[in-house]
Design a protein that fits this description.
Layout (H helix, E strand, L loop, with lengths): L2 H38 L4 H34 L9 H7 L9 H17 L18 H11 L1 H15 L18 H5 L3 H23 L6 H22 L3 H21 L1
Helix pairs in contact: 1-2, 1-10, 2-6, 2-8, 4-6, 5-9, 8-9
Amino acid sequence: MDRSDYYGHYQANLQLLDCEMEQVKAAAQQAIGEKAWLEKKHRDQTQIATTANRVKACTRLYTFLLCSWFEARLLKMLYENSSVAFTDQEIATIRSNQPHYKEMNQKWKESFSIAVCRSYGFSYAPATDYTSSFANGSVEQRYYTTVCSFFSDIAEAITIRNRLGHGQWDIQFNGSNTNVANYAFFTEYDNIQKLNMLKQAFNEIAEIINCYVTNKDKHTSNFHAHIEKRINNVFQIKTRIQNSDFEKYARQLERLHARKVELSKQN
């Protein structure tokens, strides 16, 4: 297969993942609305518990798909068609299983590092911080350090995907499977509302890195404006996640479920 074949295949995978995530989100919203309606009507606790389990199952499945989506997004980016995009050797390096590239979040970091080095003439070395390579206090340095700070979110998401991928859908264990682990990710992103916004943030991060990969001139005002906008979008989404009101979200879905119940009675 040539470069365009790979790009097309990964694009198709990404599109299907988007479709799957929308279906799971819809199922989660339906279960959330039903649970809120059952609680409002003071229905049987067993019925409520069963519906709550459906909510949790959909939420965990969406989490798993979200992290798979992020991997597919990287693979698509590797095969972008641009004169300044990754070379075949760079792609092989990023996709290798060497220690510096083994974990998916590290592959993202190294992809960004390679793009930055090629753009600004730095010498690339794995697992290197290039902050001091930029002029101190420059906008380029600020963009670089800000984007690097986003990778911690990716690392947590990939860890969770691995736990779920090993069948730990309800109770998770540590890396050596010797103890139960309480991952902060499940507390911070504990519902489909927050996870859907996290997907938006991940997409912004992917677009930032993609711009570094494909944009030929990183010194123009247009490039700086684009990166600044994307970075601000990430922070705005994070603020929305922190300020989100799940009870209000659930009440809206409860009203939709109530209307559905009334319509079914009329029919």
